[in-house]
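During the practical work, I worked with a single protein chain and the tokens that describe its fold, as given directly below.
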Amino acid sequence: MSVEQDPDNEGVEAALEFDRMTIERFRSTFPRARWNDDRKAWWVPGKTAGRRVARWRALEQSRADVHADAKGRDAFAFDPIVSPYLEAAAELVVSTPYSKTVVDELRQIPFARWDDVRRAWVVPYRAYEELRQRWPDIEAAAQRAEPNERRRRREEAKGTDAWLEAQRRASERRKRRYPMPVDDLPPADRPVSTSAFGIVQFVSTGGELVDEAALALYPDADGSRDLVWATWRPATLEELVHTWPAKSGPTASDIARGWWFSTKSELVAARKAARSRERRST
């Protein structure tokens, strides 16, 4: 339902989705409402019509949520998810070891939210069908994230080429440096996006030239240009919130350069991650 205020008349225009019971409740609440066939909407007169329609709309949404939650509870009772990672309480509580895959999946579920007190995700029953569809991926990712499973994979991987490459990359990441064209350095007053580390805040450049051995760890870097090391740190939530998004995505030359001004979708994801980091540190 949409509501539109008319500045020239005292009242509001309310467009309802066609549903007989909803329209009956609307007409019972607003007996002075009149149908406008040209506008395909109801006109509710009165100085306070906007507030009254808004309250009625909130009540209708609450009624719909209660009905959807009851339907979700019935679906759970008929076909429940049985898992050590799920608790059925007043709402569905999902508690798993940390996994980016789990977080990404749960963020796609309508109405799912993180509960700081329980340190778990909470999903209302109205979103049960969506949770059930995503549960196989959530549970598999949670099992992979168990400490014993992580330890087993690390032990199995030791000494392999992939393990050695991962060790080199981890060592390089701890240095918090990035190869940048000496004649096209990133700004020092705002976070920017990179292909290797996401959105970061560059701090300084010491003028040290990048050697070929280290450059091999940065396949996207343009080795045909003179490159120097630029040091970086993770961007803070405050910095990300105050960063205006770019109007368009990066070009091929931006990517080859190694940095670009972040788009809205990149900033939204980075802000969510920064909020999660702040919650975990408190």
